Amino acid sequence: MSPDLTTPGSVRSAAEVNEQIRALWLRAGGSLSPQERAEYELLVIEWAAAIRGTVIEAA
């Protein structure tokens, strides 16, 4: 199961979203502001949906 697969209905792959999450943490220096926290939460939801899609495809 590759994290680079794009899920149906998702514009970005789990790997792309994960990269954006990592970049957010690097920019924030490990401590998120309230605005960054909101962005992080949305990214995690998007990442989880992308991962869930790859698991369903593999099944």
What does this protein look like?
- By secondary structure, the protein is an all-alpha fold.
- It contains two helices and no strands.
- The longest helix has 25 residues, at 34-58.
In short:
By secondary structure, this protein is an all-alpha fold. It contains two helices and no strands.
Q: List how many beta strands DSSP finds.
A: 0
- The count of helical stretches stands at 2
What fraction, in percent, of the residue positions are helical? 55-70%
Q: Separation of termini?
A: 10 Å
Strand content: under 5%
Q: What is the quaternary state of this protein?
A: single chain
Q: Helices and strands: which structural class?
A: mainly alpha
Using only C-alpha atoms, the radius of gyration works out to: 12 Å
Q: Poorly predicted ranges (pLDDT <50, ≥5 residues)?
A: 1-7
H and E string:
HH
Shape: elongated
Average pLDDT score: 84
Task: Characterize the largest beta sheet: strand count, sense, and whether it forms a barrel.
Answer: none
List keywords for this structure.
elongated, 0% strand, 59 residues, mainly alpha, 2 helices
